[in-house]
């Protein structure tokens, strides 16, 4: 049995931020279910925006049988100033090493460190590797670099560390190409490991319900990148006088602007902003919906999309990096960015029944491609290669 330690940098699964680290918990659970020993360390620095908020977190807890060790401190250095990122990376190195040594004391030495962040996570993993000679594997989830948000001051050191990572992966084939070019990793094989479909969706008893009203749904953070306004405008143009509703699940900085826009168009009864919901409630909302919508400008993968597909929903999405590798002719439509006319046309085709999709096929194919067995099978090979390298 191999022992994997996942390193996460940030505010991991706290009351204030329950979603941060959720993909790493899914990752750990999949490994645990396949007889790996697994744990998580999570050093985190809070942004200046949270300086007045109560720092309520547990330094240690077990989540579904997985040990989690956290250390969260207040950061006083704005990350928008380049040089500060270099100083912050040093803080993360120190905090990560401290957590690692505490973890080893209680749970033993892992075979591999798996870090999930290039901005600061690789600095943590590399620092541990230097002292304890434990190999590390890198996965990049964040779309920082495609949105030009990766700090230039860290790039040279990041490239050097990435070349020492036994394996480098991203969430989708398209993003892997962008990542490799951005960091000039000519002689590095940047592989693709899609995030795992959460077990709650894979193991659910599937029975599609018929709705009284045709229902579109989108589950997304409400920000500029997720482009929710595009979805609202498409829906308003084509369905303002039809017995159809649109549910938007999620929260974020654009919430007030979106609420105001919906009110100005007098569409409050047809467009429902549901706010943040946990996975159990999201699953119920998906089961009672007919079609999933996504319009992200950039998306390294799209876990919300595979969750919707696992509930048998066809998906209409813009051609962002991740969705382009998920969606095909048998489970939905891909639309060019900002092509509102075509996006609406595909919404109408599904609503009118002109494009029919087999819900059972969509679900089975999604589990086959992104379920736990497929995910762990790929990781087993990566970990084996990393240890034997």
What does it look like?
The structure is a single chain. The protein has 389 residues and is an alpha/beta fold. It folds into two domains: 212 residues, Glycogen Phosphorylase B (Rossmann fold, 3-Layer(aba) Sandwich), CATH 3.40.50.2000; 170 residues, Rossmann fold, CATH 3.40.50.2000. 41% of the residues lie in helices and 19% in strands. It has an eight-stranded mixed beta sheet with strand order 3-4-2-1-5-6-7-8, with helices on both faces. The radius of gyration is 21 Å and the shape is globular. The mean pLDDT is 92.
What is the CATH first-level class name of the largest domain?
Answer: Alpha Beta
How far apart the termini lie comes to 18 Å
Strand content: 15-25%
Shape label: globular
Number of strands: 14
Helix content: 40-55%
Domain count: the total is: 2
Write the H/E string, N to C.
EHEEEHEHEHEHEHEHEHEHEHEHEHHH
What count of helical segments does DSSP give? 14
Strand and helix map with partners:
Blueprint: E1 3-7, H1 22-33, E2 37-46, E3 60-63, E4 66-74, H2 82-107, E5 112-115, H3 121-132, E6 136-140, H4 152-162, E7 167-170, H5 173-182, E8 190-192, H6 199-202, E9 214-219, H7 228-239, E10 244-249, H8 255-264, E11 271-275, H9 279-287, E12 291-294, H10 303-310, E13 315-318, H11 323-326, E14 332-335, H12 340-352, H13 359-370, H14 372-388
Parallel strand pairs: 1-2, 1-5, 2-4, 5-6, 6-7, 7-8, 9-10, 9-12, 10-11, 12-13, 13-14
Antiparallel strand pairs: 3-4
Helix pairs in contact: 2-3, 7-12, 13-14
